[in-house]
Amino acid sequence: MTFETDIDGRRATVVIEPLGEASRSGGRFRVVVRDLDGDRAPRVHVVDSRTTDLGLSLAFEDGRIADAAVTARPQGEYLVQLPGVDVPVVVDGRRRRQGQAAAGGKGEQRITAPMPGRVLRVLVGAGDEVVARQGLVVVEAMKMENELRAGRPGRVREVMITEGISVESGRLLVVVE
Which of 33, 50, 114, 156 has the greatest CB tally within 10 Å of its CB? Predict the structure, then answer.
C-alpha cells in the first residue's frame, strides 16, 4: 500500500509492505518513508502492528512502541493520531491531486470529533477566515491533545461546541465553507 502524507507542509510517500502473513488484526511490515521534497534519504522501518479498539499499536525494531488512533474522513483521507502529533493521510493522493482536488476541493468542510473526548480549546469563531492546516479546535482524548485543523482555506460558518464539553466520536464540531 502507498500513502501520501503532508505534515506541516512536508510531503512524503509511505510504502507499507507485509513481511510474512498479515491479517486484519496485524502483522509484520516493512515501512519506507520517502521525502517528496527531496531533502532526506528514504527511511526504512520494520514494524510489528496489531489492531486495538481505537487504531493500531506499533512496535519498532529499535524497541520504540507507538499507539495510533485512526479515523476515516471523507474522500479517502484518514486522520492518524500519534502522541503529540496529528497526521492527515491521503490514500492515493497523487491521483486525487490531478483531479478536482487540485483546485482545493469544493463544498463545506465538516470537522468532526475523531473519538470520544473533551473540548479543551476552541480556536476559531463563526465568520473567521482560516487557512489550510490552521487549528480549529483542540480535543483531549486518551490523555492526548488533538488539534483538529482545516483541510483548506475558507470561512468558519458555524461552531457547534464550547470549551469544556464532552463529545462523542463523530460529533460535528466546526463547519468551514
Answer: 114
